[in-house]
Amino acid sequence: MSTYHGWNVIKLPVLKHPGNFSTPTMSNCMLHEGMSGHIVASLNWFLVGFLYIVSAMRRYYTTKLAGQKFVSSVEFPFDFLPGRLHNLPFVALYKIFGILVFISVETIGTLLLKSGCVATSFWQHGTMAMIFLLSGVVDIILLKSKDIKYFPDGTDYLLFGVNFGVQALQFVYHLEGRTPLSARLHGFQAFLAAMCALALAVEAQFRHNAMMPIMRGYFIMMQGTWMMHLMFILYHPGTEKRTWDEDAFESVELASMMFMYHMTFDLLLILVVNLVFAKVYSGTQYKALPHTEKYGQCIIIYDGF
């Protein structure tokens, strides 16, 4: 015990993080694990969101031509595939496969660490991945169960919405102790996850509106593009030199502006996809031809799309 201006001073030991958890001194294995995890997660989000958008647009145009009412669903089975692949739950299967790859990358990266302990982020990512995987499993069960209903209607929306709610909370609590730039980047990711949960909640109430699943896919897809950009900013692959000052106010402003660019780019991508569908379904092979009163309308659908 020592004294300071007449006061007794007690020195307490301070528990410090291992050096490889500090961003400036991040080890190569930690850097590789962080980049790999971000790449896999961003690709999963982008592809799942994009496939939802394409599938929703295809169902909208086909039901419109057939004179039927559009009904949304979390999973859009590939009903255009022949034989035993008909109604293949491709997106649900990809959700499961993509998450298993993500968990494998995270686990391998954690085992390679030489610190002797497991980072908190590993458990955070594992929690989000587990619910995402369960969502894919429930999608398949609801699609394939015909005679027996194992889950009530709307379970797929509930579970998928809870998944993004958990993501939003995880990203919010992920901001503790981060630099201003890193906090802003992850804050936008939390915002997107919350918007995904909100979009699913609204879609569950308005399942006859084709814009609802498209909006859901938009926010999921944007999670992917923004996560990829976040990875490039924080991990600066290809160079060991920092390209962003994470404490500078200008960096925070610039990153915020780039987020608006992502919003615009992903929206333009949706518009381009819609233009392609509108062009394809405006062809003569998709025209509704008048027939006799006995048969009503004869709808010719191009076999193979």
From TrEMBL:
InterPro entries listed in its UniProt record: DUF716, TMEM45
Transmembrane segments: 35-54, 92-113, 125-143, 155-175, 187-206, 218-238, 258-277
Keywords: Membrane, Transmembrane, Transmembrane helix
Subcellular location: Membrane
Membrane topology annotation: Multi-pass membrane protein
Gene Ontology cellular component annotations, sorted alphabetically: membrane
Main location: membrane
Family: Belongs to the TMEM45 family.
Protein name per Swiss-Prot or TrEMBL: Transmembrane protein 45B
